[in-house]
């Protein structure tokens, strides 16, 4: 496995239950500046193999990345089971839940 991929997987697995992070911040935690797209590729190709908490990763603008529909509804439902509030439009209240905020690490 490529070292950068291993670090992304570790960063993804470190996001605790009831918290979210964004693609950009996972990349930064993995030591890959400007690596948000690489995080997306790892999630897309390795979620099942490594049991990654894909639903805890959202966009930097605090929204679920999926367009309206089944995938966004599924992600919102999974987040809600962990106590995270998600609006009908897919926006997450990240000021409280964002794992990357001070005091949440």
Largest sheet: 2 strands, parallel
CATH arch. level architecture:
Orthogonal Bundle
Distance from first to last alpha carbon: 27 Å
Strand content: under 5%
Runs in which pLDDT lies below 50 for 5 or more consecutive residues are none
- Number of beta-strand segments: 2
Structural class: mainly alpha
CATH class term: Mainly Alpha
Topology-level CATH name? Arc Repressor Mutant, subunit A
The rounded Rg comes to 13 Å
User: Total helix count?
Assistant: 5
What does this structure look like?
By secondary structure, this protein is mainly alpha-helical. The protein has one domain: Arc Repressor Mutant, subunit A. It contains 5 helices and 2 strands, in the order αβααβαα. It has a two-stranded parallel sheet with strand order 1-2. The protein is globular and about 40 Å long. The chain starts with a helix and ends in an 8-residue tail after the last helix.
Give a short summary of the structure.
By secondary structure, the chain is mainly alpha-helical.
Summarize the SSE layout with pairings.
Blueprint: H1 3-13, E1 21-22, H2 23-29, H3 36-50, E2 57-58, H4 70-81, H5 94-97
Helix pairs in contact: 2-3
Question: Which features does this protein show?
Answer:
105 residues, mainly alpha, Arc Repressor Mutant, subunit A, two-stranded parallel sheet, 5 helices, 2 strands, 47% helix, globular
């Amino acid at each position: 496995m490529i070292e950068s991929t291993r670090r992304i997987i570790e960063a993804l697995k470190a996001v605790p239950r009831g918290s979210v992070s964004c693609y950009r911040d996972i990349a930064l935690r993995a030591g890959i500046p400007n690596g948000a797209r690489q995080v997306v590729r790892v999630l897309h190709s390795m979620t099942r193999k490594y049991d990654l908490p894909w639903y805890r990763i959202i966009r930097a603008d605090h929204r679920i990345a999926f367009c309206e529909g089944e995938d966004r509804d599924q992600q919102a439902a999974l987040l809600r089971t962990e106590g995270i509030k998600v609006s009908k439009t897919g926006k997450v209240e990240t000021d409280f839940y964002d794992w990357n905020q001070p005091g949440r690490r």
